[in-house]
Each structure stands twice: as C-alpha cells, then as structure tokens.
Specification:
8-stranded parallel β-barrel; alpha/beta
C-alpha cells in the first residue's frame, strides 16, 4: 500500500461514513473482554489526585503492569487517586505477538477488564515503537516494505479495545536529531517506508478508532541543552507538517521523565513548546511522569524534597495551558518503577514509596492540580 492509496482510501471512507462503523473487526474482538462504552467513572473519588485534577477538567492516571494488579496497595492507590490507567508493557507489539501468526491478549485483557470493573479510563500505549517490534515483524517489514503488515497489527489491537480506549499513543519516540538532518529517528519504519510512515500510521489509526484521541508520544523535551532544544524544535516542525497535510492527529504526549542529573529545567523552552502546540489546536497529555535522582546517598527527606520540587516546577509550567488535559505518572510506587532496575540504589521518583507511604511528590502533584 502506498501513501496515495492510503490517504485516498481513508478519505473516501470518511466521506462514506464507513470509518465509524469499524467494519473490519478482528475475529478475536469479543474474546476476553466485553465491548462497553468508555466509563467516565463508576466509583466516586471524592479525594485524591483524580479529584484534584477533575476540578480543572483534567484527569490523573498512571501506568500499570498486569502482574502488579495483585498488589492491594496498588489497587487502593488506583481507586483513591486515578481515573485512568496505561498498560506499561501489555499492549506493546512484542508483548502481544512474540511469534508470527499468534496474538496473546491475556495480560492486556486483564488490564482492560480491571479498568472496566473499577471505572477507569484506559490509554492505548503504544501502537508503534521501534523498541517493541517483534523480531518476526521487523524482518517482514524490512523484507517486503509493505505497510499492510503494520496496519494489520493496528486492526487487531484497536478493534479489540476500541470500546475501552479513549486515547492512543499511535507513535512513540519518532524524534532523534542525532540520526539525520530531518531529526527523525532512523528506525525500521523510516528505513522501510520513509518519513511518510508517521502520517500513514495516523491514517491507519483513524480508520479503526475515528472518535478516539490520537497522539504522538515523545521524551527528552525538558532541559537546558542544545540537544533537548533541538528535540523540541524537531517535534514542533513534525507537528506543523502533519497539521498542514490534514493528518488526523489530536494531541501530543510529553513523557516528562524528569532527571535531576541534567540541571535546571528549561522554563522558556517548555513554555514555548506547549504554547506552540496549543496554537496548532492540539491537546497535550503528560504521559510518563517520574523523576530520576542525582544522588541517592542523601537523607530520605532531602531526596524526596528534591524530587517533589522538580515535579512542582515542571507541572507549574505546563498546567498554565488549559489544553493540557491529563497527567500520568509512570507507576505509583518506587518498588514497581522501571527505574529500579536501572539505578544502583532504589530511585524515589514516584508518588509513593515501596511500602505505599505517600511522599512529597504526591503532595506536589496534588498542589499543582488543585
């Protein structure tokens, strides 16, 4: 399938009203979960972070792993603080289809079912990421250069969870200024399809979820360095191109993996980036908030204060814009954090410690949202 065929086909389907019908439904769509409308909230959350967020028309959520849902502390925190959850790994391509011709949805269904039972919205993370393409699919894409292989994956995932997911990270981390002059990451998709793969992905996602919010999700946009400044500029140029071409993109995910080793946040750079995204009519969601510590040898109270202060500084910048509609942390508990495996000592960069004691970071998030 080439770009012209893809866009003409999508446009014709829109005109005919066919996209909303989603007639090309995967045969396993009804397996494991029952289609139902996206819950606004079946549980009254009168205190906590989601309540604070809702007062300004925003939502608060977090990333979860299916196995982590066994933790009673996590379940309590989700019910108290969250109105949305994001599958940390279960929806990634290599998790769903590690071998050719076989999709296994058990872990993702478990996350989706949990969201449905507890009145939680569900984010779709992520459809296309260069680090989560299974070996068999990467080989197929490189060998055939046929976009249909990617679109078939979108179809299988999106039609299965279409009734649950209101917000999709269609493309994850497409920016890398060091790779080439365009600033786009020289990943397997760029090599196989050229830079148009990004707009193709959004048209394909729109085919299967026309009403959902469709986003590009990116990291490394927060600090004062030439490199991160170039990343911000490249992202804005990409968004401008997509908007001018009429690509159905609705928003931007700012991962916000904050890092105390990098020095000061670039207040003007962050503010200007979100201002320019706002001017394009796009929504913004903070999708993966956490904080990497610089010195884990400090007293705990000092460590937690530094993490909380950095969190508050960042949120105070981005929450000036009403089109920033959601805040998501990448986990709720230091013991479950992906940073735990990357640091010599447990990183304290999430709202709760390993024993589910609330930390200063949680207070900072609440104060910023209130």
């Amino acid at each position: 399938m080439n770009r012209r065929d893809l866009i003409i086909g999508a446009s014709a389907a829109i005109a005919a009203g066919e996209l909303a019908a989603c007639s090309a439904v995967d045969e396993t769509h009804t397996a494991g979960i029952s289609p139902q409308p996206m819950p606004k909230s079946s549980i009254q959350r009168t205190s906590g972070l989601s309540s604070a967020a809702s007062r300004s028309g925003r939502y608060f959520g977090t990333a979860v792993q299916a196995a982590g849902l066994n933790d009673s502390g996590l379940r309590a925190a989700l019910n108290r603080d969250c109105s949305s959850i994001t599958p940390e790994w279960a929806m990634k391509w290599d998790a769903l289809a590690p071998s050719a011709g076989s999709y296994r949805f058990d872990e993702m269904d478990r996350v989706a079912d949990f969201a449905g039972r507890h009145g939680l919205a569900l984010r779709g993370h992520t459809l296309l990421w260069h680090k989560s393409v299974p070996t068999w699919a990467a080989g197929l894409i490189a060998r055939t250069r046929e976009w249909q292989h990617v679109e078939t994956h979108f179809q299988r995932v999106m039609t299965r969870y279409a009734s649950r997911v209101r917000e999709w990270d269609v493309i994850n981390e497409p920016i890398e200024p060091n790779d080439n002059r365009s600033g786009l990451r020289n990943n397997q998709f760029l090599k196989a399809f050229g830079p148009d793969y990004i707009e193709w992905a959004f048209w394909s996602a729109h085919k299967f979820a026309p009403q959902a919010r469709k986003m590009v999700n990116e990291y490394g946009l927060e600090y004062r360095s030439d490199y991160e400044g170039q990343r911000r500029l490249t992202l804005l140029r990409l968004l401008e191109r997509l908007k001018k071409k009429g690509v159905p993109i609705d928003g931007v995910g700012l991962q916000a993996h904050l890092d105390l080793r990098k020095g000061a946040l670039d207040h003007n750079g962050i503010y200007g980036m979100v201002r320019d995204i706002t001017a394009m009519g796009l929504k913004v969601v903070v999708t993966e908030l956490d904080v990497v510590e610089a010195d884990t040898g400090l007293p705990l109270q000092q460590r937690d204060s530094l993490v909380a202060d950095e969190t508050r500084r960042y949120l105070d910048i981005v929450l000036q814009f009403p089109n920033v509609i959601g805040i998501n942390t990448w986990g709720m508990n230091d013991g479950h954090s992906w940073l735990r495996a990357q640091r010599g000592r447990e990183n304290r960069g999430l709202p709760y410690d390993s024993n589910w004691r609330a930390k200063a970071m949680r207070n900072s998030i609440h104060a910023a949202l209130a």
